[in-house]
Here is the input.
Amino acid sequence: MPGLLLRDLSRQDRYKLLCAVVVPRPIALVTTLDVNGAVNAAPFSFFNVFSEDPPLIVLGLQHKSDRTLKDTTRNIQRDGEFVVQMVDEALAKAMNDCAIDFPSSESEVTALGLATLPSVDVRVPRLAAAPFALECKRNMSLAFGPGRELLVGEVLRVHAREGLLDTESMYVDFAAYRPIGRLFGNLYSYQREPFTMVRETHAEWVMRMQAEGREPAQES
Ligand SMILES: Cc1cc2nc3c(=O)[nH]c(=O)nc-3n(C[C@H](O)[C@H](O)[C@H](O)COP(=O)(O)O)c2cc1C
Here is the structure.
């Protein structure tokens, strides 16, 4: 099999394939402010941290099928401010409900009765129930065709729910955190069984190879 040539696949098949293969993806539940000051919330799993210096995250914002902007995209384009709340098991249902196609004029946060707390460096409130909330401002956005943009955001401040973060050691209590991941379609994953792997230095690896009677492969 020569593999699948992506340009031969329909857009839907590419989406299905890539989303099912690149898993699990973390979920950003993004709050923004609309033009009237109402709090919008929507989940995005084309999301990840990109770097720590500067501290950047990336979000893949697809436009609606009629090419109009999602509320999140429009609000960030206007204000340049947003908050990413990480999604744990307890927040999963609310996250899913935030993806309901509420009319733009209706705040998901108000409709679903989600409690908010004020942020410090941005005007956009954060969700009180979130395990972690990242106050962000837009760094840049790149348009890819008429249908989507890649948003790069700078993380200004991180809020942690009580008991999850030791700020001296920066240790996150992963067992208490309980993040979920997005798989594909309506499928999500728990992250309940982490495992440890210690990485050897090259010298340690060579010594182990010799101890095991195996010769490290020579470059040809
Ligand atoms: C788990 C999950 C992940 C999603 N990821 C994305 C994404 O990465 N990009 C995107 O454009 N839409 C994504 N969506 C769809 C948006 O959340 C949905 O279109 C939402 O209604 C947009 O709301 P807004 O118009 O208030 O911004 C996702 C939905 C779910 C449930």
User: Anything to note?
Assistant: Residues 6-211 form a domain with the Pnp Oxidase; Chain A fold (CATH 2.30.110.10).
